[in-house]
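Re: that chain you flagged

S.,

Sorry for the slow reply, it's been a week of failed gels. I finally had a moment to sit down with the sequence you sent. For the record, here it is as I used it:
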Amino acid sequence: MRLLGLLTTMLFFLPHSPDAGLCGLKNTAFRESESISYKVFYSLAGVYIEAGTVTFSCSLEPFDGKTTYHLLATGKTLPFYDNFYKVRDKYESYIDTGTLQPYKFIRDVHDGNTTKYENISFDGKANTAVTSSGVYKVPECIHDILSAMYYTRNMNFDNMVAGDKIPFSMFLDNQVYPSYIRYMGKENIKTRYGRFHSIKFKPLLIKGTLFEAGEKMTVWVTDDSNHIPLRVESPIVVGTVKADLMDFQNIRNSFSSRINAH
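Prediction finished late last night. Pasting the structure tokens below so you have them in one place:
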């Protein structure tokens, strides 16, 4: 399986809202030096087996004369799975510290015998995305899959009603993908760190090799100022896949959504 590609689809289908202040939100959710990691589990016949890990980190780095947030996501299979299907995936995004809009996105994927490299430069003034294949016109406020996750963590969900749709556009594989996520309301969820008040979403997925089309994937994020994904779960073509938060370092705000600890 494409481990990080799978988890990025699961975690990064979290878009910006067109009503969120055009192309800028003030960052109050994360900070440089933050690190969060997940374990990915695969289930067939109701038994979950650990398959791999994914880690996200953020740092401050110069890019093209600007100070940017350098977002990094890496994923790999466990040694046991390496014997059957070795995965070593890496995603990077350089985003503006003021607007959280992307300047550069890099995807370097090694899944079994398949490799893919993608390098995208975004021009917010011209509304273009430049790749090795050409120059593409994109909508205002376009995101890559990594910048979208961190942008969305700064959204205010207080005025949303269960069932509301949040439209978004994302650029990947030389295409603009229009879609939405459906806000499902608030829900308490139990994790290894205790019980949390969470915000629940269902993204609209496009049919692919692993996922079925529709709103079958579920995402839970902390109902506090961090908006850190706690769990993502979805049926796939064969079985079910789940990603659970396993570690966090240097988060910006307290976990005020935690009801109690183990």
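What I noticed first: The radius of gyration is 17 Å.

Talk soon,
D.
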